[in-house]
Amino acid sequence: MRILLVEDDPEQLEPLHAALSEVGHIVDAVQNGEIAQWILSQRHYDLLILDWMLPEVSGIDLCRRYRSAGKASPVLMLTAKDTTSDKITGLDAGADDYLVKPVDLFELLARVRALGRRSPLWQGETLYLEDLTLNLTMLSVERDDRAIQLSTREFQLLEYLMRHPRQVLSRDQLEQALWEWGDEPESNAITALVRRLRQRLESLEVANWIETVYGMGYRLSPKV
Questions:
Q1: Which residues, in sequence order, are bridge partners of residue 167?
Q2: From CA 45, how far away is CA 26, in angstroms rounded?
Q3: Can you tell me the distance from the alpha carbon of 71 to that of 74, in angstroms, rounded to the nearest whole number?
Q4: How far does the chain reach from its first CA to its final CA, in angstroms?
Q5: How far is CA 10 from the centre of its chain?
Q6: DSSP string, 65-77
Q7: CB of 160 within 8 A of CB of 136?
Q8: Cα(129)–Cα(160) distance, rounded to whole angstroms?
Q9: Mean pLDDT of the 189-215 span
């Protein structure tokens, strides 16, 4: 999933960011509520993780404004507030769940998995395209009883292509989908990544499913 993580304490932000990235999520991490609000106007996210107390714009206000804009992706609040009235305030603002600090990373990942199942893009732990199977938990791809492991970035590219089959996807679309906010890829990064993924998929005889649409981008078109 693409996740927006907003936490103003770098000592808490860094381990949360690392834990989420390690299991394959694409995480945009910021420390300021006002910046987070601007990013939310520019990008779509599958999940928001918001600290309650933030500079400029609080996490609870971010959540309210996000819901007021008609956005439906799940919101997980991080807070030191654990009274019943605080829980009611968070839920009434549109939060789906919350964790009380200090956050246990294993519990965080479990909550993220559970909330991911509420995302509009949720299609289960496995994606299918014709006879190609992508396991979102194992970071593996299978076809005809043959399986290969992919690197995190290769897996993210194939997942994005499989979620948008037969669509022409521009380089800009792929860069925005696969790289974190503020992390600028090199000019040839998409070309190199597509080449590596094709090489990895040769053993499954589906490398030619990834088509280059010259002047436009790439398209995943099954050939069966």
A1: none
A2: 10
A3: 9
A4: 29
A5: 21
A6: HHHHTT--S-EEE
A7: no
A8: 12
A9: 92
pTM: 0.70
d(CA 185, CA 196): 16
pLDDT reading at 123 higher than 60: no
d(CA 128, CA 146): 15
**The one-letter amino acid at 72:** A
Helices of type H across 48-104? 59-68, 84-92
Q: Which two tokens stand for residue 168?
A: 């022409």
Q: Cite the DSSP H helix spans in the chain.
A: 10-22, 33-42, 59-68, 84-92, 105-116, 152-163, 171-178, 189-201
- Predicted confidence at residue 182, as pLDDT, reads 67
**211 within 8 A of 218, measured Cβ to Cβ:** yes
Give the amino acid at 51.
D
3-state secondary structure of 131: coil
- Identify the residue whose tokens are 């070309």: 191
Phi first, then psi: what are they for 215, rounded to 5°?
80, -5
Residue 128 CA, chain-centre distance (Å), reads 19
Q: What is the DSSP letter of 169?
A: B
Task: Pull the structure tokens for residue 222.
Answer: 């099954």
37-91 confidence digits (pLDDT tens): 998 888 888 889 999 888 888 888 999 899 988 888 889 998 887 767 777 777 7
Instruction: Give 141-189 pLDDT, tens digit per residue.
Output: 999 889 998 888 898 899 889 888 899 999 988 888 888 776 777 888 9
